[in-house]
User: Fold this.
Amino acid sequence: MDPLRRPLIAGNWKMNAGGSDGCDLAIAVARATTDFADADVIVAPPFTAIAAVTNELYNKKSDVAVAAQNLHWEESGAFTGEVSAAMLRVAGATWAIIGHSERRQLFHETDDAVAKKIAAANAAGLKPIVCVGETLSEREAGETLAVVERQVQAAIVELGRAGGEGVIAYEPVWAIGTGKVASPEDAQAVHAAIRQVLADANAELALTTRILYGGSVKANNAEGLFGQRDIDGALVGGAALEVEGFAKIVEIAAKLARQGKTG
Ligand code: PEP
Assistant:
């Protein structure tokens, strides 16, 4: 972690906790992380819980922010089942996860669609968390950096428009939900390459953009990852549904940030 950037821990609840259970989970996360002010915390409930979760967090005066897990790039119209960025902003979200590998793989989202979604998020005042990452076969073919750099390049104009507010999440697909975590050194190498792509476009953007690691992050592997210079936090899936473990990840990030500032 670089003391220049505040650590960020985002919990992607996926298709879980979409009703009153989402409010309970959000409040429990807010309570459990309230002492760790050196780290930013986001929860990403399903669409159905965004408004209620936002209200609960607002009523409890919590700093925990709310992200959508996806959006549609159009503002309105005949797109049955879709939700626009502006609607999510009205519901209370201030962030949006875009291009998660489950969307790229299961719902065939292309780099082009991802760019359009980031543009829509920017226009609606949602800060994007743009996910990139290679599959196992791409890694085995030695294509990791080429794939990740292509995905970042496709997003870079819109990330530039988001300025330092935009976030990139490097999530190797083979590490998501598998219990297999990238080694801190391997993850750092990819994060450094991503930051170089940003630097080639805009030096300021490279300094300010937070790059999260995602893929089986747990309390017992977070410290090694967060100890790397270009890893600014985590996008957490499975472990985000378990309050104590998630809070521990936030605590570790906040502790390292404090140490970075003082030492
Ligand atoms: C994710 O869904 O973004 C993710 C990283 O999941 P997990 O932590 O379960 O691997």
Remarks:
- Strands lie at 8-12, 40-44, 65-68, 95-98, 127-132, 167-170, 210-214, 233-236.
